[in-house]
Amino acid sequence: MDSFLEAAIEHDITREASRRIQQTLSTEDWGAALDEFMESSSFRNVSWTVDDSREGIYREREDAQL
Questions:
Q1: For residues 11, 36, 20 and 2, what is the CA-based torsion angle, rounded to 10 degrees?
Q2: What was the pLDDT predicted at 21?
C-alpha cells in the first residue's frame, strides 16, 4: 500500500510540474526539456512490460470469457 501511495503522489507531483512547464516554455524549450527527461535516470529506471502483441490481446480476452 505504501508503494502505491508513493507512486500516486509522485504521479500527481509530476503531472503538476509538467503542467507548469508547458505553460511557461516555448515549443523548442519544451522539446529540449522532454529530451533531457528521456535521457535522465528517472526515465531509464522505469520497469514495466507491455504485451500488446496480437496473441497477448486475444489471450486476455479469452481468459476474461472463461
A1: 20
A2: 62
Using an 8 Å Cβ cutoff, are 43 and 37 in contact?
Answer: yes
> Which residue type does 33 have?
A
Domain containing 10: what range?
Answer: 2-65
pLDDT in tens, 15-66: 766 666 666 778 888 888 888 888 888 777 777 777 778 887 787 777 777 6
In the chain, the amino acid numbered 4 is F
Length of the chain: 66
The total domain count for the chain is: 1
What integer pLDDT is reported at residue 19 of this predicted model? Answer: 67
**CB-based burial, 28-63: b 16+ in 10 Å, e otherwise:** eeeeeeeeeeeeeeeeeeeeeeeeeeeeeeeeeeee
